[in-house]
Specification:
- The structure is a single chain.
- The chain is 60% helix and 11% strand.
- By secondary structure, the protein is mainly α.
- A hairpin with a 5-residue loop joins strand 1 and strand 2.
- The protein is elongated and about 70 Å long.
Length: 132
Amino acid sequence: MSRSGSPETLRDLARVEDPEFADVMASVFGIRDHETRTYLALLERPGSTVAELAEELDRDRSNVNRSLTTLMEVGLATRERRLLDPGGYVYQYTATPLSEAKELLHASLDEWTEEVHERIDEVDPEGIRGNA
């Protein structure tokens, strides 16, 4: 557990009786609380710009932009470029629907579990003694 009491690993998360959604997101995707808040804000306001989210979340635009980049990297948000009438463009962001995010969470956990099972099966008693 972290100093704040939030679970940092899947093992920590399994020990929490009623984990918060942000704790699950952090343990599975490795994202921080402010990134989860950005995701939840996007769920409520699809098609938001960085400026709109920064105002809604009361955060600096550069911080919101970094959160959005992280969310896109883990598959929790998408970005579309919208052309403006006077010229130029703006990016609009949309959250991956919650049902798909849940599927991503399950798939990530399944993948992690499979990898752990493979590591367990590969354990060599000689190799363990050699590392001790």
